[in-house]
Specification:
The protein is mainly alpha-helical. The protein is built from six helices and no strands. The longest helix is centred in the middle third of the chain and has 23 residues. The model has no long low-confidence stretch (mean pLDDT 81).
């Protein structure tokens, strides 16, 4: 992760700080998250190689965070932030409407269902005409 990405992440965390406080985060948790967030992210994404057993345990516990109880404060904070970020993205997805996709019809031409009158015509059984009874212009010209 380069310096530009780290700065972007820090700016995002600064913008999200009031929301975190509103969610019930205390100052200690927010400061720990801001201090170590890029390290957490680098470990989980594989950008930073785990140097000791605590780092390996952090990666394993974050990947299995739904199934186990987290015991370390860093694991708890990062897991809690992942949940917060996921919920924020779900809310944004519902609130924001895309200008391009909003103008596309739900059932565009070619995707619409046939009207009942057309469906009734599909059900009609026509009499079979034999080859000899069939009139063709090229045969009689």
């Amino acid at each position: 992760m380069d310096k530009k990405d780290k700065e972007a992440l820090k700016k995002r965390l600064d913008k999200e700080t009031p929301l975190l406080i509103k969610e019930g985060w205390n100052d200690k948790e927010i400061n720990l998250l801001k201090t170590h967030f890029t390290f957490y992210l680098g470990l989980v994404n594989g950008d930073i190689k785990p140097l000791n057993e605590n780092h390996k345990k952090f990666i394993q516990n974050i990947k299995n965070r739904k199934n186990i109880k987290l015991d370390d404060i860093h694991q708890k904070i990062y897991s809690r932030y992942i949940d917060f970020f996921t919920n924020q993205n779900l809310k944004k997805k519902d609130e924001t409407k895309d200008e391009v996709w909003n103008n596309i019809e739900t059932n565009p031409i070619g995707m619409r269902e046939y009207p009942q009158s057309v469906l009734e015509k599909f059900d009609i059984e026509y009499e079979e005409i034999g080859y000899n009874e069939w009139y063709d212009d090229w045969k009689h010209s």
